[in-house]
Amino acid sequence: MTNKTHTEERTEATEAQIAVHWKEEQYFQPSKAFIEQANMRDPDIRKKFGEDNFPDCFKEYADMLTWSTPYSTVLDTNNPPFWKWFTGGKLNACFNCVDRHLAQYRNKAAFIFVGELEEDPPVALTYQELYVRVNEMAALLRDFCGLKAGDRVTLHLPMTLDLPITMLACARLGVIHSQVFGGFSGQSCGSRIQDSGSRILISADAYWRSGKLIDHKVNADIAVKTAKEMGQEVDKVLIWQRYPGKYSSPAPMVEGRDFFVNDVLERYKGKRVEPVSMDAEAPLFLMYSSGTTGKPKGCQHRTGGYLAYVAGTSKYIQDIHPTDTYWCMADIGWITGHSYIVYGPLLLAATSVVYEGTPTYPDVRRPWRIAERLGVNIFHTSPTAVRALRRQGPEEPRKCNYHFKHMTTVGEPIEPSAWRWYYEEVGKGEAVIVDTWWQTENGGFLCSTVPALDAMKPGSAGPALPGIYPVIYDDDDKEVPKGSGQAGNMCIRNPWPGIMQTIWGNDQRFVDTYYKRYCKNPKSKDWRDWPYMSGDGAMQAEDGYFRILGRLDDVINVSGHRLGTKEVESACLTVPEVAEAAVVPVMDEIKGRVPDVYVSLTPGAENSDDIAKRVVKACEDMIGKIARPRQVFIVPDMPKTRSGKIMRRVLGAISNGRDVGDVTTLANAAVVDEIRTMVQGKQAASGEGQPKQ
Ligand code: WTA
Q1: Exposed (0-12), middle (13-18) or buried (19+): which is 107, by Cβ within 10 Å?
Q2: Which of 121, 243, 357, 642 has the maximal Cβ count within 10 Å?
């Protein structure tokens, strides 16, 4: 991705420059009240986690867990870049999240579920009750489904408590869960079933979203069919019912294959399952994420290192105490939800809120009513949500009587004006904010302020976390110094416990994607020779704070969710009339970026609105609604280099209303003007820059 040709073709270069031109912002200090109660107040923390004490510094995180067998080695670097953490140690993730809290916190809420319909009161699930449900579910998975440690199971669940219960039941058995975001299509789910080799799919009948009870079972049927076409049989489909005992989907249940979880659970009432002691290095879960090729990669996360890292970062960066009521508004189907709705908060015996629906349903004051009603004091969301809530209800937060001590943003760069609204209006000037930068691959935060110790600076993710040593490289492998005003490739020099183990079933792709580019010596067993390449552009200010500028590769970040341009393009190419497709990111006021699609047609195909509609449908069906293009442009030809490469940079510039630069070297320069006229005409007609949905 960093070779010259590719650099020229990428569309993000100019966006990065725009971000670079954000001016330096003033600092905001954490309040005395926050500092006094913070988990991490040691001003020497970064020194303690400094290179002199690496990797042993991470023992502090491992000690937050309960091990059935203590580990013997902190970091094993024998087979770079396949690092091993806490080897020799054994533990069970579910035991750590649930069982060990019972003595002290048995009847404290582990989760509070808030359904989308406001007339349904919130439901608290205590640690004891969670223990009971997880055990029964684990018994079902083991005895009814025949699942055992090391097996994979695909979950395609919406945001109800059935999801964390199922995850923890898997973890209790050492079964590797692979939760696919509930909003992804049945086909997306099917290809992930196939890739992970799951024989069991766990799904749901329906869930509430924007005031509608959405049929979800239909996706299970599509998923099983897709997996089968790809060569993976699914033996059993388990369906959680949104209303236990009542089936809320019109899709028929397939005899002998489909089962209602609530029915089968009857047989396992009161059953207890011993937590299976797993090697620290045993995989805990897979989380598929988009990359530069069409095929999503299954990021494989380990048990010991991952849990240690999320426990440590939840404690020090999220400042979670067992007495806190913590609400992360993300979906558990993304890494943020795995690490910072389920595993992190539960490891610390906190109360974690799970909200089913859209933040703006039935109105834009909803999140603040929830916060007031539940007494939420730690709040975590994305810049996209902040922008939307601000635009639709800038003064709503002050109408509700809640008090946050701490707030988080994650997933995209947040522009300083949105940050300030978040701080002043949502946080009422009382709460600290951490802007946390990290990725699915990373398990937990990599850059953020340590909230009681570092001043906040709007628009900057802050310095690296304790124990993380970043470096920014330019395209010529040279380090970009801090304060230089230059951007480059954000890399991490060292391994850390939360880093993924590999890409499921594809070690080579793992090495190629993250380590090949900046590896100093492929034969070396010294971690210093193996920087991790994040794929993000970044710059570091004089004060050491990092500003993340966005993806440098072919990934579009829509509302903080990653979409591979190749994935969207291959969906477009399933429409028979489409000969070529190019997808480019367009700036969007709320979502950060949205995809614009350009297609050219096969000879003889008639240009029609119907084709554009089918392209949109193909994206939604094959990926999910988040992949819905803002616009589909049917162009007479793609702008191409003489060697025949589609110039996405040119299309990106047109979509964003920017100067296309020098196009004289193109094979077909004349088409650029034609496309520009077409796009700008259409944008003027549909309201420039507005997403369609
Ligand atoms: C982007 C989400 C700026 C970045 C946890 C990264 C951010 C991608 C931030 C990962 C942030 C995440 N500031 N950009 N605080 N956090 N990103 O895998 O481009 O869904 O590479 O993980 O989101 O997205 P992913």
Answers
A1: exposed
A2: 357
